[in-house]
Amino acid sequence: MPIRNSAKAILVHEGNLLAIKKQDKVTGNIYYTFPGGGQDPGEDLHSALRRELLEEAGLSIEVGELVFVREYIGKNHARSEVEADVHRMNFMFACSLQSTVAIPYHNPDINQIGTEWLSIENLTSFRLFPLALRGPIMQWYRDKTQGLPQALPVYLGDLY
């Protein structure tokens, strides 16, 4: 199976991070993911991210700097029995809203039940996947709001 590129948004507005709210069909548990998704052939990452935010959240965004690169190698994670051949590269960009008026989204993610703005100060209290990225996102935001350079590496490796 080929490696799949994915563009993800780190979209913070008024101290809150936009997340895709999902519900596990088997357990009923609520969890969150970063908005964004797969890059189509012939599409650059910025265009993929703008398209995905319109589809999933009904939002127009400005794509900013690349903040993190997260790799996902399925055989190394909890769902290895069904995702052993999955290999994704997530390119995570700082984004800002072009408009605060959302349009109805029309192509939600699988298991998506909505969107939610999560308090960045309390990010560790949410089941936001990948779980290991909550701390780095909080650190990035603190550094950014204090005008400090990014202290974390851009490439974070294979995180869950």
Q: Report the helical percentage.
A: 10-25%
CA radius of gyration is 15 Å
Helices and strands, in order, run as EEEEHEHEEEHE
Count of helical regions: 3
Q: What structural category characterises the helix and strand content?
A: alpha/beta
Task: Specify the biggest β-sheet.
Answer: 9 strands, mixed
Q: Tell me what portion of residues adopts beta-strand conformation.
A: 35-45%
Q: Determine the CATH superfamily.
A: Nucleoside Triphosphate Pyrophosphohydrolase
The top-level CATH class is: Alpha Beta
Give the termini distance in whole angstroms: 20 Å
How many structural units, i.e. domains? 1
CATH topology assignment: Nucleoside Triphosphate Pyrophosphohydrolase
- CATH architecture tag: Alpha-Beta Complex
Name the average pLDDT.
92
Q: Tell how many strands the DSSP assignment holds.
A: 9
Low-confidence stretches: none
Shape: globular
Task: Name the features.
alpha/beta, Nucleoside Triphosphate Pyrophosphohydrolase, 160 residues, globular
List the helices and strands and how they pair.
Layout: E1 4-13, E2 16-23, E3 30-33, E4 36-38, H1 45-57, E5 61-73, H2 80-83, E6 87-97, E7 112-119, E8 128-129, H3 134-145, E9 155-158
Parallel strand pairs: 1-6, 3-8, 5-9
Antiparallel strand pairs: 1-2, 1-4, 2-3, 2-7, 5-6
Summarize it.
This protein has a single domain, classed as Nucleoside Triphosphate Pyrophosphohydrolase (Alpha-Beta Complex), CATH 3.90.79.10.
